[in-house]
Structures are given as C-alpha cells and as structure tokens.
Amino acid sequence: MDGHIQTASLLPYLCDNGGKICLDISTIRTGPEQPGRRVESFIPEYTGDFLAVGFNAQIRMDSGSTVRQVMLLAQRDQYPFFSDHSPKFTNSIIDKCWRQAAGQNEVNGFVSDQILFAEQFTDCGELLPFAPLFFCNKRELFFHPPCLRCGKLLLLCRDDELLGEFGLAHYSRSLRRYLYCPSCTPLHGGPWYTRTMNGEEKSVVKDCSQLIQDFGSITSAADPDTCFPCAECLHREDCYGTAVNVFDVINVFLFYPFYMTLRQRVSCSGHDYLAMVSGASPGQLTDYW
User: Fold this and answer.
1) Beta strands 106-107 and 66-75: pairing type?
2) What is the β-pairing status of strands 155-156 and 179-180?
3) What is the pLDDT of residue 165?
4) Short-list 179, 215, 227, CA closest to 12
5) Fewer CB within 10 Å, N side or C side of the chain?
6) pTM, entire model
7) What's the rounded Cα separation, in Å, for the pair 212 and 182?
8) pLDDT higher for 258 or 35?
9) CA 248 to chain centre
C-alpha cells in the first residue's frame, strides 16, 4: 500500500475556472449579507446514506445554458452511523466499494446512470478520489488545501506504520483519516489534520477550523496546482484579521479526498447503489449493511 492516496483534481471542471463546459455545484446562501461579502455553505441535498452525500449540481455551457441537471454523489467526510473503529467498515473496505462501483454499469438488473471523468482513473483503470475542496467566498473560487510549510497539496495518509509512530489510528483498520504533507509532517513531527476531533487525538493533530485559521500564516505562493488564493490576495489582512470572521470567507466542500460520481437522478439510495454494483442482490441489501 502506498503511503498516501493519489488524487485527481476537480478544479478544471468547476465553473470558476473558465471551462467551456463546466460543473456548477449549487450552494445555499446562509447568514447575514453584507456589502462586498457573500456567505455560503454547501448543503447536501441528500444525506440519508451510510457512505455518501448528494449535492445538486448542473453541467453548464460557458454561456450559462444548462446541459443537464445532476446529483453529485460523493464520499462522506464522516460516517455518523458507524464507530471510528467499526470492524464492519474500514477506510480500506470503503475504498474497495467505491472502486468496484465505478467499474460496473449493470449488476443484478440495476442499471447505473453514473457519469465519470477520465481524470478519475489511473492508467491501469483504477478509480481515483478527487483532492479535498475548499471555497473562498470573497473571490468565489475553489482550491485545494496546501501545506503551511512547503505549499504543496496536503494528502491523505494511509501508511499504517507512520500513523502508528504518531499514535494515530491506522487507516486500514479504522474510519479515522488524516491529511498530512509527506515531506514536512514526518520531518517536523506534525501537524496532522482531521475533520473534527474525537477527544482521543494527540497533540500533533489539528482540526479543520485550525487548518483554516493557519492558512493565514502562508505568506508565499503555494504550489500552483492547489490554486490557493490567500497568500498574495489583497483581502488577506482583512480575512485573517479581526474585522472579518475567516469562517465566513472560507468554506469546506469536502475536507478529505473523495470518490465521486455524477448521476442523472437518485434512483436508489447511495448505499444501495454501492452495494448493488459491488455484487449484492436486492434481497441481500438489508444484510449487506
């Protein structure tokens, strides 16, 4: 097993990146509006799954015309239905489930209407997750989270030995996940980043809120592949100062790398979809979970 998860980037497909055909992820505006500032949160339309959440989205032309209404079905950041150390489901099992789902179009009479991107696959045809996505309301653009020291993309660690050295839960035997920089984190003894703390985390672990606050310490340009907007932004001092709450400016779409499929409709629930294309018959679904 590689030490970290290889990822693809969804950035070239999103509307803020100027493509001829783009993916528009719907947002619901929340909070008070103020001149020059827009507060948005990404609210899933569909949350009843064990393994996935669904967001309304549109495939659009650069003219603004909608080509198709779709549901973006994505891997969850957190699994509230399971213990972090559930023997029934682990990160490795969930990875396998998504990869099997992407490779089949019809199983046991269930026809998949999924839409996938070429960049989601390795040269060997293995499904890749997309890199984590954050959103800047001020400049209305998406970006990937960079390392605070070197500016490279933070990755998802699945090196059980390395995680064990820091006293963290193993990737392959739990549902806990940690972002890190392969170059800087082991060398400097941290930090590791998790979506939310569970009360058992070590001092080397920070959560999502701390990561967003720490973005303010990045003063030099990050790796261009991250599209990180803050380092040289004219609004930087405002966003990370006292006048504006940075959590009103930076939103998280999905914190961890995420497997994803676009679907024309939700013809069955996400966990049934994943179960069926992984080989379970409709009669086995209640036992499958």
Assistant:
1) unpaired
2) antiparallel
3) 94
4) 227
5) N
6) 0.85
7) 20
8) 258
9) 19
What's the helix, strand, coil split of the chain in %, to 5?
Answer: 25, 25, 50
Enumerate residues 6+ apart whose C-beta is below 8 A from 25.
14, 42, 55, 57, 72, 253
Which residues lie closer than 8 Å to 171 by C-beta, 6 or more apart? Answer: 91, 92, 157, 158, 159, 160, 163, 177
* Tens of pLDDT, residues 96-135: 888 887 766 544 444 557 788 888 888 888 899 999 999 9
How many other CB atoms sit within 10 Å of the CB of residue 61? Answer: 12
For residues 99-114, one letter each, b for 16 or more C-beta atoms within 10 angstroms of the residue's C-beta and e for the rest, the string is bebbeeeebeebebeb
Indicate the DSSP class of residue 116: -
Lowest mean pLDDT among 22-31, 48-57, 89-98: 22-31
- Written as one letter, the residue type at 192 is W
CA 186 → CA 76, 162, 189, 210, distances in Å? 27, 8, 5, 19
φ, ψ dihedrals at 121, nearest 5°: -125, 145
Q: Dihedral sign, CA of 131, 134, 140, 146?
A: negative
